[in-house]
Amino acid sequence: MSVAIGAPAPTFTLPDTDGTPTPLHNGDSAATVVVFTCNHCPYALAWHNRLQAVARDYLPRGVRVLQINANDAERYPHDSPAAMAERVNAGEFAGPYLHDSSQEVARAWGAAVTPDVYVLDSEGEIVYHGAPDADHTDESLDAEWLREALDDVLAERPVARAETTPVGCSIKWLS
Amino acid sequence: MPTIELLYWDGCPSHPEALRDLRGALDELGHPELEVALVEIVTEEQATEQAFVGSPTLRIDGVDPLPPPADEPPSLTCRVYRLRDGRYSPTPDPADLRDALRRLLPTSIQEA
Fold first, then answer.
1. If you average pLDDT over every residue of chain B, what do you get?
2. How close B86 comes to chain A (CA, Å)?
3. What's this model's pTM, rounded to 2 decimal places?
4. Which superfamily does CATH assign the domain made up of A31-170 to?
5. What are A30-81's pLDDT values in tens digits?
6. Which residues does chain B have within 8 Å of residue A76's beta carbon, measured at their own beta carbons?
7. Taking a C-beta distance cutoff of 8 angstroms, is the pair B9, B55 a contact?
8. Which of A36, A82, B55, B81 would disulfide-bridge A111, Cβ 3.0–4.6 Å?
9. Minimal CA–CA distance to A30: which of A143, A142, A119, A131?
10. Pick from B44, B73, B78: CB nearest A42
């Protein structure tokens, strides 16, 4: 069960691909986007560039984007820390790419698929949960649901479309 | 008649779309009568036995017409395809499907 809209987001500190502990809250974000994603899911890959564009476009407006890989890296070596670092070093990520090796964060948030997108307001409450946009195959949609949610929260309006259905590969849970 | 199988894992939502594309390709090639057997892969043991590298996987008489990289390990996962324009996709490019069916369906069937 995913954390409800309006509820405070469960806090965490996770290592990035350099091993640097990265907290959910850094104290000065106007909004935070948390995306549960991974390296080897066609849905996550199809939406990946749209999500990086959001990270770049909204950084000047004080939005922080954290991407988290919670997949079982032992059974799915494509999701190993080394494979994550390879993608980061290749410049594929526009923000920190964090490793949730125990899957405690994914479980606490109720994340189910990749990509699974959450938006938090400046108080750390969840104001959007769902997919980046309506169709992983249509790049022209440009993560519009996520962008609309960010525009609403940055304008201090209620998020008009607070919940959509995340679509993607199931998170690969530890057995 | 050729054996056409669509292997899938229920943790990936792409097999209905893959089946629709496959049926569409068979229709386009004039063979709506050919049956597609859906084969669910449930356990990692089954994935290993079937050399199943992800969902969905098409087999025609046991041959994968869109073979994965040789070092791709068997696993319960979504399979990553590339469309002809380079985009990532959870399902094969429909044009690749049509070409594969033209290539792998027995000549006697194609000429029927």
1. 92
2. 10
3. 0.94
4. Glutaredoxin (3.40.30.10)
5. 999 999 999 999 999 999 999 999 999 999 999 999 999 999 999 999 999 9
6. 75, 77
7. yes
8. A36
9. A119
10. B78
